[in-house]
Amino acid sequence: MIDLKKKKIGFSLEVFPPKMEEQNPLLVEKINNLDFKPDFISVTYGAGGSTKNRTLDLVKRIHKDTDISVAAHLTCVDSSIDDTMRLVDEYIKLGITKIVALRGDSPNSNTKKYKPHPKGFQKTSDLIRAIKENSTIELFVAGYPEKHPESYNVHSDLINLKEKVNNGADFIITQYFFDNQIFFNFLESMKKYNISSKIIPGIIPITNYEKIKQFSENCGASIPKNVSDLFENTSNKSSDKDKIIQNAISHITEQSLDLIKNDIRNIHIYTLNQISLVNDIWIEIQSKLGTKYE
Predict the structure, then answer these.
(1) Most distant CA atoms of the chain, gap in Å
(2) How large is the average pLDDT for residues 193-211?
(3) What is the CATH number of the domain that holds 188?
(4) Are 10 and 39 in contact (CB under 8 A)?
(5) CA distance linking residue 284 with residue 274, whole number of Å
(6) How many CA atoms lie within 13 A of 75 on its CB side?
(7) Which entry of 14, 133, 163, 217 is annotated as an active-site residue?
(8) What is the number of domains present in the chain?
(9) Could you list the residue range(s) of the whole structural domain that residue 111 is in?
(10) Mean pLDDT of all residues in 143-172
(11) Is residue 247 part of a domain?
């Protein structure tokens, strides 16, 4: 169990399965070379289960070859209830104690509209209830400080989040954001809706601005002017690489320190598999903190 009341600052990482399964050992090696041990590592699950087997393999490898707890992403997309629960049982047999329960995105590249599987879970809260009724797995769910892009409005989005928490979610991991005030406002909104689950803010380093801009448009995360001004004029030319990396480290360090200053004790980093960069970021954060939070 993650202790969000602890004084020491904890962090967790999200990784995705490499396209080639044989690259998994290299990713695990990089994880083992981290200077600071994360509380857990979550492994993503592609739209329509497109990376299901690669996700399972990477989860197994991290669980077997590191001493870091791993959280397997699990979605409702394109799977019957029986198939989904069989996968949950498989994770339990492996000794996995954490799952990130998600609705998932539409597997149809021509339309972004989500359509539940006719024999599957119709929404995330149903999946959460089923897992909790049959196991003691620790469940993480997604929260959207700027509203899920498919939600009708902020109210309906918060009602959906409340239902997930009421059905057994242990923790909320937020979609990434760049303006911390958006996150703090989200915390206030959760209080008004009596959503009491523990929450972990998600942040993401920017090393490819155009890619992050596209991601952000798809997931509804706004990019403030001070961030776009810092990154949009950089390119991926080798001559700019050092500047891009330094900007990424400086920006996410500053954002993290502001969260910590405001009593946030756990941070989730969307790594995009840039493990070495994340290691440098956390070293910088720890150097700024000194011994205050040891």
Answers:
(1) 55
(2) 93
(3) 3.20.20.220
(4) yes
(5) 16
(6) 22
(7) 14
(8) 1
(9) 10-289
(10) 92
(11) yes
At position 68, the amino acid (one-letter code) is I
Q: What is the pLDDT of residue 6?
A: 53
The pLDDT, as a whole number, for residue 112 is 59
**pLDDT of the residue at 48:** 47
Q: What is the dihedral of CA 104, 106, 112, 114, to 10 degrees?
A: -80
Residue 266 has pLDDT above 70, yes or no: yes
- Tell me how far CA of residue 237 lies from CA of 1, 216, 231, 280, in angstroms: 43, 23, 13, 21
What does pTM read for this prediction? Answer: 0.90
Give the 3-state DSSP-derived string for the chain, with helices as H, strands as E and coil as C.
Answer: CCCCCCCCCEEEEEECCCCCHHHHHHHHHHHHCCCCCCCEEEECCCHHHCCHHHHHHHHHHHHHHCCCEEEEEEECCCCCHHHHHHHHHHHHHHCCCEEEEECCCCCCCCCCCCCCCCCCCCCHHHHHHHHHHHCCCEEEEEECCCCCCCCCCHHHHHHHHHHHHHCCCCEEEEEECCCHHHHHHHHHHHHHCCCCCEEEEEECCCCCHHHHHHHHHHHCCCCCHHHHHHHCCCCCCHHHHHHHHHHHHHHHHHHHHHHHHCCCCEEEEECCCCHHHHHHHHHHHHHHHCCCCC
Question: What is residue 2's predicted lDDT score, i.e. its pLDDT?
Answer: 46
284 is catalytic: no
* Within a domain: 52: yes
What span, in angstroms and rounded, lies between the C-alpha atoms of 75 and 221?
A: 21
Question: Is 114 a member of any domain?
Answer: yes
Structure tokens given for 13: 């990482």
